[in-house]
Specification:
Elements lengths: L1 H24 L2 E5 L20 E3 L6 H6 L2 H4 L2 E5 L3 H13 L2 E4 L6 H10 L5 E4 L14 H9 L3 E8 L2 E5 L4 E5 L4 E6 L11 H26 L18
Helix pairs in contact: 1-4, 5-6
Length: 242
């Protein structure tokens, strides 16, 4: 019975992915950054050693997942939760060509971070730093710690569309573009994280990345209003307590 259920789950995931691929095929994509090589349509050559850690909020994850070109997907590893929903997501990622590591800050985090450090040579790494349970759009330190340990720079992404659905969840929502809409994909300049951070330094760089994510998502909203975005990095500021 379990095997049958597992195959039914896989088939349901395959159907869902086919539907989303068809939907995204109708959409117009606009990639915005300071350089084409930082966008999700850029295919790095064999002599390009740069591999990044991409951070994007959980509610926008569907957009970069489907808008990355095939060659980029094949060179990307995603951190996926060990919760049941994460199993469906891992199956979906495999269909698209991504590799995955299972874990989160609440379950299997240390093992997942070690695997990401050991087994992702030559690949970009994608992390939703507010997942899998939130709080919404609040950065956890895992991505910054991983960047410090691996020497990879962090790029942050912001993703919006002209028309879309918001699928409500327990702690956040999920943005799904509507057919024939325009999708905007913004990518920041890479953020270098020093090695061997102290606790105080880790806190500082978590604030830097949080500020960049907040800034880039503000710029994405400007794009929707017909304004020109700016990719100039904001000065670091401490988040105020609510």
């Amino acid at each position: 019975m379990k095997i049958r259920s597992r195959w039914l789950n896989k088939f349901a995931v395959w159907l869902g992915m086919a539907g989303l691929r068809a939907l995204f095929a109708t959409c117009r994509q606009v990639h915005l950054s300071t350089s084409d090589r930082l966008t999700l349509k850029y295919v790095a050559g064999p002599d390009d050693p740069d591999r990044f850690i991409l951070c994007a909020w959980h509610d926008a994850l569907v957009i970069p997942t489907f808008c990355s070109v095939k060659q980029v997907r094949q060179r990307t590893c995603c951190l996926v939760s060990r919760h049941q929903d994460g199993g469906y997501l891992a199956d979906a990622m495999a269909i698209l060509g991504y590799s995955t590591v299972r874990g989160s800050t609440s379950k299997g985090g240390a093992q997942a971070l070690k695997q990401l450090m050991d087994d992702t040579a030559g690949k970009h790494i994608v992390i939703t730093p507010d997942g899998p349970r939130g709080p919404r759009r609040e950065l956890k330190p895992g991505a910054v710690f991983l960047a410090s340990q691996t020497g990879r720079k962090i790029c942050v992404g912001a993703y919006v569309c002209r028309r879309g659905w918001r699928i409500r969840g327990s702690w956040t929502d999920m943005l799904i573009p509507k057919p024939l809409t325009t999708i905007y994909l913004l990518t920041s300049e890479p953020i270098a994280i020093p090695p061997d951070l102290s606790r105080e330094q880790l806190h500082h760089y978590v604030g830097e990345v949080q500020a960049e994510l907040d800034h880039l998502n503000e710029q994405a909203e400007r794009v929707l209003r017909g304004e020109t975005p700016t990719f100039e990095r904001p000065a670091h500021h401490e988040r105020q307590a609510a």
